[in-house]
Amino acid sequence: MIRMKNILVFCFLIGTVNAVSGQINKDQNDLTYEMVLQVKQLNQFIDRFNYKKDIHNQDIDSVFREKMPREKYLRTLFNVEDERFRIMDSNNSINIKSEMEKFISSVNNNQHPQYLSYQDNQLFALARSVISFKGTDQEISLLLQLRVEKDQSSQWYIIGIPESPFSMNMEVDQRKKNIPPNSNETNFISISRLLNDSLVRFGDLIYPDHTYDPLSVFWYCLENKTLSFEHVIKITYYFFQIKDWVFTVDEFSRNSWNSGWLISDIYSAPDQSKDDFFYEAFNTKPVDYSNKIPEVISLYPYSPCPGDQQDLKTSVAWASAYHAMTMMWAVDNGIKNQENITDSSFSPSFVFNLLSDEEGCGVYTDINRTLYFLKHTGTVKSMDIRNDCNVTLDERLYQKALKYRINDYYELFRASTSDDLIISSIKHALKMKKPVLVEFNAPDSFEDVADSLWFPKMDEDENAFHQIEALTIIGFDDRLSSGAFEVLYSRGTKWGINGRAWIRYSDFVKYARKGFFIK
Amino acid sequence: MESSIGKSLFRKYGSNLMHFIGIALFTLLTFAKLHSQEYIEKNLRVIDTIVEISPEEITGFEERAKEKLNELQNYITIIGDKEQDAEDREYAIQSALKLFIPGSIMQVSNKTWGTLKEYEMRVYFRRLMSVDYNKVEIIFYKTAYISGLQKGPDGKYHGTATIFQEFKGYTGENLVYSDMTTKTVDIVLDYIDDKYYERKRWELLLGDVKVAETR
Fold it and tell me: In Å, how far from its chain's centre is CA B113?
């Protein structure tokens, strides 16, 4: 029955391959079905696991979805040539096949489907490698972690060497060799004798509970040329992202439809015990691995009184200079008193007067352009300039503005970014106590939010062009209506509840066009 | 009415007036343009430019990566073909090397012998040129996969492509060696200073290559 299931999945996939093969140009050979089905890179594994891309690396469409539901697709990502994933073994206390079924159900849960991400610092690689140590080849494993930086750039770091390649005799030689209790009185002369004695063991002189860090020793040996690194021979990826599970992915190079990067093992590991799992697996403490995003974050205590753009199209200046920059200043200075924060707020007026010279304040200004000005020109404090669209900016104001420039900014997402990534990138920014600027395709109902939670009207098509406005996201709550962002808009205190409101994640991703992170 | 005034002016002052009006308009527009430029520069206090790539641009670069990989495959075919002129094969090596970041490595694993060797790209191509077979047949397949580009801390964008290659070595008419390999190729997108055109632009180059034998 199980074999039959695999065969059916396989047949469908082959059908899909053949349907496309006919379109391939004749300059190069058609890919065989094994080549198409092979999970060629970890990237591709993640895209297939997340049910984002089909076997041809195209976005999954309704036809594919109907014939190959996620549950079946996930099965193709296991190393099914490993019998443990195919046969129910009632003799074994840990039945991997039944664990696999539980794992798939958990990942493919209708209410809370789970996905993998490159963005949450929870991807680890164990690279089995060959080194030459004092002229002799030996194998070691390097543990690496993919770390995503604030600007969404990423890189791998070596974080540990689980099995030490450096043999040290930790045993004690019956304390025959030791540093006597009175040796301090003779300037520890005995130490020099003992340390140069080839019969002395590590455990004779070093405190028994001492642990040493093989990674530092490794680096030291590299530097003094007693060790050279040859190459990596095998990589195993460890995924800790799925709730209550850990699984590994290995490369299976073979001429088969079930080849490439596949799940090689799964472990049931409750989230609260994953640190222990990590320590047991790698003999090292996790590095920021449990860096999880909390369910709720709100920067509201750092916000000024909500701004009011009135009938001007100045929301970008309000969202960026007045709300976001002022909040960042309040966070940096630990100030939570709204009155004091408002008194020290940054001026939107300087920004919209700067940017609206040719088009007046009646036209929306692009966020990118505004942030460019805030990076290079800066803005002044609200107290330095009146809040009016016809202010002449003199050299004195320009000089003052130079003091208040943002360091830098990055685009966090676009409308084309996946929903998950939009939500997670905003959460990460907020976790760093950075409000996020968003360009929002605001339908009419958004202008008159009178409650804490905004609901778009049924007829407000998300694909239609509404009013483009800028918002500042200042928090989120995963528990509220299946998750919602807390936003500030510049419509005064009567908008939402005292100028702030909540937008459900599901609505937000439909109407948000761009998001920006300010450093 | 306006037209008749124009005609009467033209009749009265001739074409010189029209010429003068043209010059005045041109001067006015140029001044407005310069003024606007001055305004922008004054306010911007230009320091540098933003170097981010849009998803659309990334898609464009994926196509460019495919082109480069196809070029590489063509060169490999020429390098390995003993029936080609030595000069052409040498030229193919030089051209293939230009596709790569200098210092790129080709890592070759041999499934049968369980060995793994690394060669500088130049050395790898030279070895391919001098393989000990009378005839070599290299079969390429359509580019199998190109991953999305990821931004590195150095500002460069990094991706990976996978291509398949079948190699057959003949002595006389006898097939004496064959393998099927998966080549995984680093792709690096760098924002370079183009001295020739005096501007910055994105350039795509190939990097290290992992060659794994599958049969």
Answer: 36
Q: Are A377 and B45 in contact (CB under 8 A)?
A: yes
Beta-carbon pairs below 8 A across chains A and B: 94
User: Does A411 contact B at CB distance below 8 Å?
Assistant: yes
Q: pLDDT tens across A67-98, in order?
A: 999 999 999 999 999 988 887 766 665 688 88
Centre a 10 Å sphere on the Cβ of residue A112 and count the other Cβ atoms it contains.
9
Q: Is A146 on the interface with B (CB under 8 A)?
A: no
The residue type of A188 is F
Buried b (16+ CB within 10 A) or exposed e, A425-440: bbbbbbeeebbbbbbb
State pLDDT tens for residues A205-229.
Answer: 888 777 778 888 899 999 999 999 9
Q: Does A56 touch chain B (CB under 8 A)?
A: no
| Rounded CA separation A366/A409 (Å) | 14
ipTM of predicted complex: 0.70
Residue A447, token pair as written in the block = 């202008």
Cα(A486)–Cα(A477) distance, rounded to whole angstroms? 8
Q: Does B184 touch chain A (CB under 8 A)?
A: yes
Of B141, B151, B160, the CB nearest to A153: B151
Higher-confidence residue of B114 and B157: namely: B157
A414 at B interface, C-beta within 8 A: yes
Residue type, B181: T
- Within 8 A of B214 by CB-CB distance, chain A residues are 253-255, 259
Interface test with B, best of A28, A54, A230, A250 (most B CBs within 10 A): A28
pTM metric for this prediction: 0.62
A13, with CB counted inside 10 A (0-12, 13-18, 19+), is: buried
Q: What is the DSSP letter of A227?
A: E
